[in-house]
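#struct-pred
JK: can someone run the complex with coproporphyrinogen III? inputs below
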Amino acid sequence: MGKIFIDACFGKETPYTPVWMMRQAGRYLPEYMEIRKKVGNFLDMTKNPEIAAEITLQPVRRLDVDAAILFSDILNLPMEMGLPLRFEKGVGPIFDKTISNENDIVSLDENAYEKISYVYEAIKLIKKDLPKEKALIGFSGSPWTVSTYMVEGRGSKQYAKIKKMVYTQPKLLHKLLEKVTNQTTKYLLKQIESGADAVMVFDSWGGALERDKFFEFSWNYMREIARSIKQKHSDVPVILFSKGVGLYMDGMDGEFDVVGVDWNTPMEYALNIFKDNYTLQGNMEPTRLYSKDATKEAVIQIAETMKGHRHIFNLGHGILPDVPVENAKYFVDLCKEITRR
Ligand code: CP3
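RT: done, structure tokens with the ligand placed:
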């Protein structure tokens, strides 16, 4: 039997619409919290291949999702490029050292993609235990989203520092984006060579940019990464996901297979733009998972809209930490049941 998730990425017929959830390996799972309590530190969990592999497999066992996503973070790569990373309770990720000038960019390590070997080890371990009909998704952040953290030092509401660069030092910012793109491409290629069945690029902060700037500073780099991967591995699906840019979708094209649709963008709207040229992945509002009724309502509606079209079920952003596991299971089961052909 082939992998349903991979078939759906390429628009082939599948027995039902495959489903997984962004952030499916995480805090809503008691078995995740148990390991986290033992290890104590999120980053140490990502750096230990045995632990990362175990956490990756937890949602597959618990929920029977059609794809596993590597347990890691988009900020491990910039960390390996030379910016020490820490996570603070109530704040999130913090880089104490940030990028503000040419020298900072020059000193970034160009062998980061090799130093991050714990990820490749984790992938090999995951593939040993992952059932053959399930796919493993590798991932990275988009160069723009990763760079926002490298420049701002932490999550930001205004993106004042990096957006100041957009308008006052665009060449400097392009230099940074090129370097991150180069590392990201090599990183994803090595994930594929280690066994990842598909790769996804997360552009969580694409929506911080106005239209032309989004294409210039974010989308073009994602597109370039996708093209490099497809040139070497035409059989490996590439998923691109930008958050908050539904209105720019008509400008998104390139050599990739799947578009992630966030929950602000009606699926019907995305379908109208992309037709069946790409598979659409998404897009239930994650907060609906607090209510089975609200979940059912959305699953029915999305399934109806996407009936007969290229689709992978997912949330429109990451699952929240205190969602009842039972409701997550309900979502996954319902998506499959309702779309069974
Ligand atoms: O989807 C998955 O299950 C795979 C693993 C994964 C994580 N982060 C694990 C994680 C993936 C794909 C990410 C991506 C990521 N990380 C993004 C892009 C996607 C998105 O959600 O928009 C971003 C912006 C980050 C940066 C990051 N990492 C933040 C802002 C935080 C803190 C958020 C919070 O809720 O506290 C993290 C930590 C993080 N990454 C956790 C997990 C499971 C929580 C760690 C913990 O507290 O145990």
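RT: quick notes.
The chain has one domain: 4-339.
The chain has a mean pLDDT of 98.
JK: thanks, will look after standup
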